[in-house]
What does this fold into?
Amino acid sequence: MTTVLIVDSNKDSRLALEAQLAASNQFERVLSCSGLQLAESSIQQYEVKVMLIEAEQASQSRLLHQIKANYPELGVVLIQGKTGVVDTATLLELGAHAQTSRLAAPMEIIASVAKALVGRLKPSKRILGKFLKDGQ
It folds into this structure.
């Protein structure tokens, strides 16, 4: 099962999302913290697979790029406010794999986490070559 980390400076929003995801029983562990400074130790300690981060915080911090460099297999989901959608180019620039809204239903958020899990997987050329070779 997967461990997810929620990074959101808004305590009420963060705790509500943490409770929703934990109640879904789709994840091994759901963690949260207020900022990226605290996130890196949790990522390492708990082997976090996907991090949900508020879009505003992600776009204003170079720490996200450092974390992605240290943990390239980390899936990232941007959490949008009440409005706004980030285009694909901006998602890639921020190192994110998916996005969701604070107001989304829990299953929509879970689907975004699943998209980030799949998006972070990049088969090696050796493995990909083996599958292509076996398929011929």
About this structure: Residues 3-134 form a domain with the Rossmann fold fold (CATH 3.40.50.2300).
